[in-house]
Amino acid sequence: MNNKEYPLLQVRDLEVAFGERRRRFYAVRGVSFDIYKGETFGLVGESGSGKTSIGRAIIRIYPTTNGEIIYKGQRISGKIDKKLDCRVTREIQMIFQDPMASLNERAKVGYIVAEGLYATEKGLSREERERRVHEALLDVGLLDEFASRFPHEFSGGQRQRIGIARALVMQPEFIIADEPISALDVSIRAQVLNLLSKLQKERGLTYLFISHDLSVMRFICDRIAVINKGVLVELAHTEALFQCPLHPYTRLLLSAVPMPNPVYERNKKVLTYDESIHDYSVDKPVWTEISEGHFVLGNQKELAEYKERIGSVCPLPEDSFGVNVLPQTKAQEK
Q1: pTM to 2 decimals?
Q2: Are residues 184 and 37 in the same domain?
Q3: Do 239 and 266 sit in the same domain of this protein?
Q4: How far is 42 from 38, CA to CA, in rounded Å?
Q5: Same domain (yes/no): 238, 187
Q6: How far apart, in whole angstroms, are the C-alpha atoms of residue 141 and residue 157?
Q7: Are residues 258 and 217 in the same domain?
Q8: Do 224 and 201 touch, CB atoms closer than 8 A?
Q9: Are residues 106 and 205 located together in one domain of the fold?
């Protein structure tokens, strides 16, 4: 799956802020994590929690106010030289949330998919450019003749495939998928998820998968980080997070996931999260590895409780989640 000796991307104490002086708003504070080559790393949280801001900071759309983003051992945050900037543009691509808003409605699909090639590979011949566009469209299940059509002629699922093809044509190593299925019909979501998994296996891609839907994350992600108001509160391997959620906010998110089993759905209770339960006035929270690969944010008192919870095999509460009725995980598939 992922090579622990090779973090493809490292985020260290990342901070993203908007506005100036008194109106300054911090969307992301002190976020740190590693993404290893070949894995799918999930970032989950409520709307406005800072997920997209992290993704856009990595791809250099948003400037960082503090911290570092390191790609293949080189810092790519802040000011970098033109050659490295061009390389980052080519090797890191993004699939956006809204498949219609992210496409130029006045341009034909062929140009939309090839646009990145015009910017980064100006010496490419017309024949080679058309060949790569053709291959990218075929890879996402679209016919070559679609290149001469406009985005409004396609369904939502097809438009998202065009967005995926636009990313693939650059032959990237790392793709940021920002809620790529949230705007799609339920019947189309599985097709797009299976397509992303297929492309990852064929091309050795690495994903940062951003979503608010934990049931989807469990299906596709190797590890998941939970973010609340711009701060990471928990990070673990997917199955460990579902079997043993530690932070109260993580347990809240898990309890809100709709269940396919009507018995569980009828009897479950959606938990609530009140930040006042944390007393950080004196004992400040620290980001701690509570067990191998399982990180959580908490003060010393909370960390002791989390260790005790893990030590007692960590069964899920009956009012929260029924693991046996969830979709098959990526780990179980392997």
Answers
A1: 0.87
A2: yes
A3: yes
A4: 13
A5: no
A6: 11
A7: no
A8: no
A9: yes
Cα 131 to Cα 134: distance, rounded to the nearest angstrom: 5
- What domain range is 291 assigned to? 233-333
- Alpha-carbon radius of gyration of the chain: 21
Q: What is the pLDDT of residue 316?
A: 46
Q: What pLDDT does 320 receive?
A: 39
Sheet of strand 92-95: strand arrangement: 92-95, 174-178, 206-211, 40-44, 223-228, 231-237, 294-298, 286-291
- Which residues fall within 8 angstroms of residue 164, CB to CB, at 6 or more apart? 95, 140, 180, 192, 195, 196, 199
Residues (pLDDT < 70) of the chain are: 1-5, 312-334
Q: What is the pLDDT of residues 30-72, one digit of tens each?
A: 999 999 999 999 999 988 899 999 999 999 999 999 999 999 9
| The pair of three-digit structure tokens given for residue 273, joined into one six-digit string | 């999260």
Q: Is residue 41 part of a domain?
A: yes
Considering Cα of 14, then 271, then 273, then 189, what sign does the dihedral take?
A: positive
The predicted structure's pLDDT at residue 313? 54
How many folded domains does the chain comprise? 2
Q: Report yes or no on 315 lying in a domain.
A: yes
Tell me, yes or no, whether 164 and 259 share the same domain: no
What CATH number does residue 149 fall under?
3.40.50.300
Compute the distance between CA of residue 120 and CA of residue 87 in angstroms, rounded to an integer. Answer: 8
